[in-house]
């Protein structure tokens, strides 16, 4: 065999050397932990398709978030299950809605924690769509108005960041304007900028009781085949005032994460969604995959692709594993 000038294996000889040249480090500081809050007290109801994830009443959410904070998680994103759903999703922008109540409580208990509110209507509408429906069609501009009201109400309740996940056109600009008009100039907008119409949201919809009653979300969420369009969506959201842009889902869209990272100078978030979580959980329960190894590899891959923030239901486990 010929002399080899460069032998890549030299840098793989020991864990210490490998650590020295490692390019990507996953840390608790990257993670955002999603929680689902519901009315009542003492409620900790398991979500069958998301083992380890629960519907939590606010007292239980305080407990859960306390654990997350103790593990070093810097941020949570709050989703709500309303008491009642209606045509216009009114609990979403009710100052006394479940998310607003949870935000107020969490803000007093954990002043340092970054509180993110998912800004959308689908959990609150009787038809399960992310906006106002007229004659079977999701109306853009009336939905944007309600989303802006929702964001303001969330900021008023203590959200440090609002995260519009609806994919209506022009919602980031409308939200920025509404927040500023109410004096919330420091409230951060993390937009779900490139959100694809994905079957990987299936378990979440069970969790949030938010499956659309008719049709699907393809008239507002993006076609999974479109990477160029994703960059256009991101560009638009940045022009409209987004502070952080998100790509969602994460693992089937690593190329999109990379392209966004390379094309724009703005923090990129990636949502490791419910279906991505459920797949790993299911295989691990069967003994077919090593959960810890697979999760750390998958999330490191998301970070390597260019995401600096990762939303994941695995957040607490990851913190424990990283500390071992
Ligand atoms: C609401 C919303 C969804 C998710 C986050 N916000 C579901 C959807 O668009 O149907 C998905 C999260 C997940 O699957 O983990 N618009």
Strand count, sense and closure of the main sheet?
8 strands, parallel, barrel
Uncertain segments: none
Helix-strand pattern: HEEEHEHEEEHEHEHHEHEHHEH
The CATH topology is TIM Barrel
Termini separation comes to: 42 Å
Task: Report the CATH C-level class.
Answer: Alpha Beta
**Using only CA atoms, what is the Rg?**
20 Å
How helical, in percent, are the residues?
25-40%
Total beta strands = 12
Structural class: alpha/beta
Distinct bound molecules = ligand PBG
User: Strand order, biggest sheet?
Assistant: 1-4-5-8-9-10-11-12
Q: Per CATH, which architecture?
A: Alpha-Beta Barrel
- The percentage of residues in β strands lies in 15-25%
Coarse shape: globular
CATH superfamily: Aldolase class I
The overall average pLDDT, rounded, is 97
Secondary structure tally, helices: 11
Count of separate structural domains: 1
């Amino acid at each position: 065999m010929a002399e080899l000038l460069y032998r890549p294996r030299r840098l793989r000889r020991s864990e210490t050397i490998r650590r020295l040249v490692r390019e990507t480090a996953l840390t608790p500081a990257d993670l955002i932990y999603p929680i689902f809050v519901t009315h009542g007290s003492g409620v900790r109801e398991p979500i069958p398709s998301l083992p380890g994830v629960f519907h939590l009443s606010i007292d239980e959410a305080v407990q859960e978030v306390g654990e997350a904070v103790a593990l070093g998680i810097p941020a949570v994103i709050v989703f709500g299950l309303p008491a009642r759903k209606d045509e216009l999703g009114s609990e979403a922008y009710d100052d006394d809605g479940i998310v607003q109540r949870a935000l107020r409580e969490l803000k007093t208990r954990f002043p340092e924690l970054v509180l993110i509110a998912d800004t959308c209507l689908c959990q609150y509408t009787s038809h399960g769509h992310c906006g106002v429906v007229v004659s079977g069609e999701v109306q853009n501009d009336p939905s944007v108005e309600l989303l802006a009201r929702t964001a303001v109400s969330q900021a008023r309740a203590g959200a440090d960041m609002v995260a519009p996940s609806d994919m209506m056109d022009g919602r980031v600009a409308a939200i920025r304007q509404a927040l500023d008009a109410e004096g919330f100039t420091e409230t951060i907008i993390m937009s779900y900028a490139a959100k694809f119409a994905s079957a990987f949201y299936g378990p979440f919809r069970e969790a949030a009781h938010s499956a659309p009653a008719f049709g699907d979300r393809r008239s507002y969420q993006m076609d999974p085949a479109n990477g160029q369009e994703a960059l256009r969506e991101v560009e638009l959201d940045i022009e409209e005032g987004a502070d952080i842009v998100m790509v969602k889902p994460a693992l089937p869209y690593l190329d999109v994460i990379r392209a966004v990272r390379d094309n724009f100078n703005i923090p990129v978030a990636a949502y490791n969604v419910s279906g991505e979580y459920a797949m790993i959980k299911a295989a691990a329960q069967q003994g077919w995959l090593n959960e810890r190894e697979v999760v750390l590899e998958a999330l490191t891959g998301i970070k390597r692709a260019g995401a600096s923030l990762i939303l994941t239901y695995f957040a607490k486990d990851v913190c424990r594993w990283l500390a071992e």
